[in-house]
């Protein structure tokens, strides 16, 4: 006969009595909202929650931030739409320089058409400029292996007459100008796909339609019982 195993009920106790190592494992299984709720219970729990990383695919903050502030840390990509000041480009670049940010870091922003962010960037980094055109500026950082590249979206297909789009990237100092991406459509659409809406509508109108099925209905294979929700 097999010998019975003695199993300790390690969770048969209050949360406050559970070892921190076990709490961390529990926190690692929690969703974001659950972590926020736990974080509000005590200082010790706040420290435990803050010590655990959580991966985000996407984060969206709507509304004015006059009565608060949004802080971004350790983000490899982020963008701001309809920014109403001229300091975003040079301030982000300066942070990257100060913190020796990794190659591949990307910041994108859309601003008013008459905004002077591009000129402000040039003034702020006059002594660091490696090369410049009307479309791009490349500057040195304190790291000899990295440069920062600022690109302005120049494309007749962009229909937003009152906006201009910029992309800021940390790149390898060995990167050649021939390796630059001359097409801005992909990264602009990542911010605001509607600026190419008319072009897409034109392409869609030229696409062949299946006979006998209204063009506004999806294919049966595309219909799902489950709907995606935005959080």
TrEMBL record:
Residue segments, region Disordered: 208-231
Chain intervals with Acidic residues compositional bias: 219-231
InterPro entries attached to this UniProt entry: F-box_dom, She-1-like
Entry superkingdom: Eukaryota
Domain F-box: 15-56
The protein's name in its UniProt record: F-box domain-containing protein
Naturally occurring in which organism (per UniProt): Caenorhabditis nigoni
Gene symbol of the encoding locus: Cnig_chr_IV.g12760
């Amino acid at each position: 006969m097999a010998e019975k195993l003695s199993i300790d009920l390690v969770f048969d106790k209050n949360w406050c009595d559970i070892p921190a190592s076990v709490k961390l494992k529990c926190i690692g299984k929690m969703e974001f909202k659950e972590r926020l709720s736990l974080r509000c219970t005590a200082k010790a729990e706040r420290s435990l929650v803050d010590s655990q990383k959580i991966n985000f695919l996407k984060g969206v903050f709507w509304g004015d931030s006059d009565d608060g502030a949004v802080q971004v840390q350790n983000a490899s990509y982020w963008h701001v739409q309809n920014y109403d000041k001229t300091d975003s480009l040079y301030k982000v670049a300066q942070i990257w320089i100060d913190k020796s940010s990794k190659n591949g870091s990307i910041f994108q922003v859309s601003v008013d058409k008459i905004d002077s962010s591009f000129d402000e960037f040039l003034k702020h980094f006059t002594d660091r400029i490696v090369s410049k055109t009307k479309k791009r500026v490349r500057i040195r950082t304190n790291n000899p292996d990295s440069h920062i590249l600022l690109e302005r979206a120049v494309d007749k297909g962009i229909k937003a007459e009152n906006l201009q789009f910029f992309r800021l990237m940390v790149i390898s100092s060995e990167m050649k100008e021939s390796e630059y991406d001359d097409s801005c459509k992909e990264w602009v659409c990542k911010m605001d796909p509607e600026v190419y809406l008319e072009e897409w509508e034109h392409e869609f109108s030229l696409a062949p339609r299946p006979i006998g099925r209204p063009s506004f209905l999806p294919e049966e294979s595309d219909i799902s019982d489950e709907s995606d929700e935005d959080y």
